[in-house]
Amino acid sequence: MGIEYVYVIGGLVLLAIIFHVMSRFDARTWSSKDLERGDLHALIDVASGLRPDGLTHDQARRLEARGMVRPYGSGKFHVTWRGRLALRMRQRIRQRSGLAA
User: Fold this and answer.
1) Model confidence pLDDT, tens digit, residues 22-45
2) Shortest CA distance to 40 belongs to which of 97, 99, 101, 98?
3) Is 70 helix (H, G, I), strand (E, B) or coil?
4) For residue 35, which phi and psi values (nearest 5 degrees)?
5) Number of domains in the chain
6) Domain containing 67: what range?
7) Does residue 60 belong to any structural domain of this protein?
8) Do the domain assignments include residue 11?
C-alpha cells in the first residue's frame, strides 16, 4: 500500500506543477518571440507546401533560430514540430479572439 500512496501523491504533485506552468504560459508571446511581422504568414506558406522556398534570408534565419524550420535542398525548408505547434497556437488564439483565420 505504501508504494501506491507515493505514486498517487507524486501524480498529484506533477499535475499541480503542470497546472501552475500552464496557467502562466502565454502562447501569443511564445509563438511570436523574436519574429517579425510576416514571419508566421511565410511559415504558413512553407507548412502548406505551396512555397517550400517562400522564405527570405532574414525570415529563414529567424525561424531557424527558433527551431520552426530546417533547410533541405537548395533554399527549401521543412516546418518542424515546433513550427507546426506555433501555427496551431496562432490559429487557436485567432479563433478565441474572434478574428478570421
Assistant:
1) 777 666 666 666 677 777 878 888
2) 101
3) strand
4) -110, 160
5) 1
6) 26-96
7) yes
8) no
